[in-house]
Amino acid sequence: MNLHERSLSVLACRYVDEVIIGAPWDVSKDMITTFNISLVVHGTIAENMDFMKDDLNPYAVPRAMGIYCRLESPLDITTSTIIRRIVTNHEAYQKRNEKKEASEKKYYDSKSFVNGE
């Protein structure tokens, strides 16, 4: 999905009023008041959750304000798992095609043509 498609998918959720494209990593008090943000949500699955342990947590302000919500993600799909699946499926596709090509070559090599005599 490109940025436009992702934004439209998020906006399709009835609980979402607005999508901020190009938002900064840290959610600041100024950003919350400027955009009138009532809830900041983050999923539990991410490529790297190390930022949750740091003192520089991007969600520190929303947590302090009591508007932070952690959403349990039902699936553990990340970009890494998607890439792994694509590579695995591509390898299976190549093996299947090589087998088909070998079978086709064997068929054409053993094929004899009918003469009109």
From TrEMBL:
Swiss-Prot/TrEMBL keywords: Lipid biosynthesis, Lipid metabolism, Nucleotidyltransferase, Phospholipid biosynthesis, Phospholipid metabolism, Transferase
GO-annotated biological processes: phosphatidylethanolamine biosynthetic process
CC annotations in GO: cytoplasm
Involved pathway(s): Phospholipid metabolism
Keyword Secreted set for record: no
InterPro entries given in the database record: Ect1/PCYT2 (IPR044608), Rossmann-like_a/b/a_fold (IPR014729)
MF GO annotations: ethanolamine-phosphate cytidylyltransferase activity
Family matches, as Gene3D superfamilies: HUPs
Family as reported in the entry's similarity comment: Belongs to the cytidylyltransferase family.
Protein name: Ethanolamine-phosphate cytidylyltransferase
Provenance organism: Oryza brachyantha (malo sina)
Lineage: Eukaryota, Viridiplantae, Streptophyta, Embryophyta, Tracheophyta
